[in-house]
Amino acid sequence: MAKADKQKKKQGIPMPKQKPEDRIHNFNEVALGYTTEQALAEAERCIQCPKPKCVQGCPVELDIPAFIKEVRERNFDEAIKKVKEKNSLPAICGRVCPQENQCQMFCVMGKKGDPLSIGRLERFVADYELQKGVTVRPRSKSSAGGKVAVVGSGPAGLTAAADLAKLGHKVVIFEALHAPGGVLMYGIPEFRLPKKIVQAEVDYVKKLGVDIKTDHMIGRLYTIDELFELGFDAVFIGTGAGLPRFMRIPGENLGGIYSANEFLIRVNLVKAYMFPEYDTPIRIGKKVAVIGGGNVAMDSARSSLRLGAEEVLIVYRRSKEEMPARLEEIENAEEEGVKFKFLTTPVKFLGDESGRVTGMKCITMRLGEPDESGRRRPIPIEGSEFVMDVDTVIIAIGQTPNPIIQRTTKALKTTRWGTIVVNEKTGKTFRKGVYAGGDVVSGAATVISAMGAGKRAARSIHRYLLRKKRMRQRKET
Amino acid sequence: MKGREKDLSSKLRSELLSFGKKKENALPLYGTEECAKRSMKAMYEVLKKLELAPKIKLLKINAPEIARKAKAGQFVIFRIDEKGERIPLTIVERDPQEGTITLIFQEVGLSTMKLGALETGDEIMNVTGPLGNPTEIKHYGLVAVVCGGTGTAVSYPIAKALKEAGNQVVSIIGARTKELLILEDEMRNISDELYISTDDGSKGHKGFVSDVLKMLIEKGYRFDVVYAIGPTLMMKATVNVTRPYSIKTIVSLNPIMVDGMGMCGACRVTVGGETKFACLDGPEFDGHLVDFDELIKRLRVYLLEEKQAVELHEKSGEIKRG
Predict the structure, then answer these.
(1) Three-state SS for A419?
(2) Which one of A220, A230, A246 has the shortest CB-CB distance to B30?
(3) Which of A84, A250, B6, B210 makes an SS bond possible with B237, Cβ 3.0 to 4.6 Å?
(4) How far is CA A215 from the centre of its chain?
(5) Minimal Cα–Cα distance from B143 to chain A, Å?
(6) What is d(CA A240, CA A175) in angstroms, rounded to the nearest whole number?
(7) First-to-final CA distance of chain A
């Protein structure tokens, strides 16, 4: 191979994107996706390792080299088939997975240059199929044939439901909100994950035979016990981490201070960015402070810009290196003009007579020894307080699981953080026939790790149902 | 449909009185005929409609699953159509056998105006519930149920359940003026004593419900507990009346909500110095601990947008006046 070619192979094909100056005025998707030529060129970079390392970085065990090989050979139909053997939501994963910490982190190509853009290729084949129209082969009924209730239609629930349906079980998903998709729908903004993509992936799960009941809040409408009374043989809880955390500092209930959840639900789920065409309003000020350093903070900041804020500032108590957000999202935010104030945290919110926020008193931090998360602990510097003028604050410091199911279900063991205790490998809870996975078990994490948990739980639910059936048959004979 | 509408008022009023009394249906198994039969009927269809007072309307809605589970004090979130807001409304009545719930609301904003414009046979796109915690019903002894405006509708199932639990119930209902009083007969039927007040004196005592409560307390009524439900200012005034007497006072709060299930935190209120979510921890709280001034300010956050939405909508002429 010529030297120039070798050099070329080290560099990945960049993702075409909307220009920053354009995209801050719309909610359309930022990353535009590879063209066929780009996808072929990128796939060509894969060296098809005999012992592929990338696969070990994938929580849903995707056969990455196999699908890339099909892309190279222009067999896009075969490629997506390979992907869907393991991953029921590829158009979503191709967009929001942190591949740099997973499959791509292990890619051999990454040692001397850019790792292969596995996520972008996954998105390419998924979009190819969506554009063509998804067909699902009818499935024969499994011998196990159980009825499973899946609580929550986020990444964990959708994956568990899809896998169980593929195994021949009757699955009903109960979703509390009016639209299925969970965090994919209410949390991740349109410009990062278009809602029509989520709907298309949800439709695929429906085509597998899964019934989705929206407006059904389990824990209130039915308890877990009542689901068994309804005739379900097993229950999977994938209710995510939907309860917003607040700072617990004075002035936090002033008008103009949102939890990131409220802000994003208004924008994404009920489309407040289209007010007054849509009925739900949102009030965005001139100067917005977003507290936190994760993906949710980036999403909130970038949404604020698009809603017309003049200045958006991410206020994070540690430094840039400790930020949990994906590098790609931090870069996107920077490109769009989001500013960062590191080593700073608010200690008090200030308001006017009408009860609206006008500023926040902040304190500067320094970094101490690493804490249990492995990141250096922020320590306030005495006497460093200062006041920052802001008229909108979005608090994006994390979420914990919604407590309703835990409160209304007996013998479901939970931790002091409100997460449900399960067997890591099987997703089994302390209640017979009840499984759980995703953020409700792990605390707020990634889409793909929730999908991995859904997958593992589906497998053990299947085994449980087979066992149950065998026992029933034994009793009958 | 039209025929059913005619005999509404008399029949419905008598039907309005059965919260929790009728025998419940068994849960229909998924995949059974019963389940299929139920889902045949359009979900959330408006089965009956009544105008109780100017701009105060009653809707009976097909919602079998919610009807089976709802208890006094709980609410639903409705979304009228694809573009609609998610708005909480208290469940005033349920009929598990018929599979219906009843909502009473005042047309104050765009969403309630749209809801009020629905006719029998129309559908609401989404109704989620029951949400919030049910009222804790027990035997207290002498109970005052103080309510204003549409708060009377919220109070009705609570007062009724309290009466059924063996309490002596003294109800005080109020409104701005005579025409806006609702559920007077219904409240009278389940109360040992009923007092009425109107701001303009057109019926009953001239003044506020809290004034009546104060008079009763001064007369020597020893209330074991007071329920105060209605506009935030009314609840605040009532709580101020009972505070010097240290009478336990329970209020049902109505902050802005989006999801109504603990996700957004828009409904956060300060209770006893702690932040609580009305949807998860409430909507009922110890009135003496609630920071009403904060709640009032939080309720006003979107006044501008709410006005704008109503004006735009009225201009577009989409609102049919019933």
Answers:
(1) coil
(2) A230
(3) B210
(4) 21
(5) 28
(6) 11
(7) 69
Under an 8 A CB cutoff, do A281 and B305 touch? Answer: yes
Q: Which of 19-48 (A) contact B at CB < 8 A?
A: none
Q: How far is CA A32 from CA A29, A88, A191, A334, B231, in A?
A: 7, 22, 10, 19, 50
Which residues from B are below 8 Å from A243, CB to CB? 262-263, 280
DSSP secondary structure letters along A123-150: HHHHHHHHHH-------PPPSS--EEEE
Contacts 24+ apart (CB under 8 A), A47-53: A47/A108, A47/A109, A49/A108, A53/A106, A53/A107, A53/A108
Bridge partners, A211 (sequence order): A172
Instruction: Provide ipTM, 2 decimals.
Output: 0.89
Closest residue in chain A to residue B44, using alpha carbons only: A215
Tokens standing for residue B34: 């019963």
Closest residue to A262, CB basis, from B79, B265, B305: B265
Pick from A147, A270, A276: which is nearest to B308 by CB? Answer: A276
Task: Report yes or no: A352 at the B interface, CB cutoff 8 Å.
Answer: no
CA-based torsion, A71, A73, A76, A80: positive or negative: negative
Q: How confident is the model at residue A4 (pLDDT cuts 50, 70, 90)?
A: low
Interface test with chain B among A218, A280, A284, A353, by most B beta carbons within 10 Å: A280
Strand (E) or helix (H) holding B67: helix B64-69
- Which two tokens mark A211? 């019934």
The pTM is what?
A: 0.90
- Confidence band for B305, pLDDT divided at 50, 70 and 90: confident
Contact A178 B125 (CB under 8 A): yes
The DSSP H or E segment spanning A404 is helix A404-408
Q: Which of B76, B133, B258, B314 to mutate to test the interface with A (most CBs of A within 10 A)?
A: B258
- pLDDT category at A6 given cuts 50, 70, 90 is low
Q: How far is B32 from chain A (nearest CA, A)?
A: 10
- Take residue A178 and report the two structure tokens written for it: 């009016």
Q: Does A277 touch chain B (CB under 8 A)?
A: yes
Place of tokens 């500032």: A313
Give me the residue label for tokens 């002033």: A254
Tens of pLDDT, residue by residue over B92-129, are 989 888 889 999 999 988 999 999 999 998 999 999 99
Asked whether the CA dihedral A363, A366, A368, A372 is positive or negative, the reply is: positive
Q: What whole-number distance in Å separates Cα of residue B226 and Cα of residue B146?
A: 7
A34: amino acid identity, one letter:
Y
- A178 contact B CB<8A: yes
A1, A10, A36, A45 from A5: Cα distances, Å: 7, 9, 20, 11
Give the span between the Cα atoms of A340 and A349, in whole angstroms.
19
Smallest CA–CA distance, residue A179 to chain B, in Å, is 10
Establish, for the pair of chains A and B, how many residue pairs have beta carbons separated by less than 8 Å: 135
pLDDT band at residue B268 using 50, 70 and 90 as cut-offs: very high
Q: How far is B305 from chain A (nearest CA, A)?
A: 6
Residue A354 touches chain B, beta carbons under 8 Å: yes
CB contact under 8 A, B302 and A283: yes
Phi/psi for A151 (5° steps) reads: -100, 115
Residues in chain A: 477
State pLDDT tens for residues A322-337: 999 998 899 999 999 9
Q: What per-residue confidence (pLDDT) applies to B321? A: 43
For residue A7, give Cα distances in angstroms to A2, A46, A49, A112, B53.
9, 14, 19, 10, 79
Q: What is the 3-state secondary structure (H, E, C) of B256-296?
A: CCCCCCCCCCCCEEEECCEEEEHHHHCCEEEHHHECHHHHH
Determine contact: A381 vs chain B, CB below 8 A: no
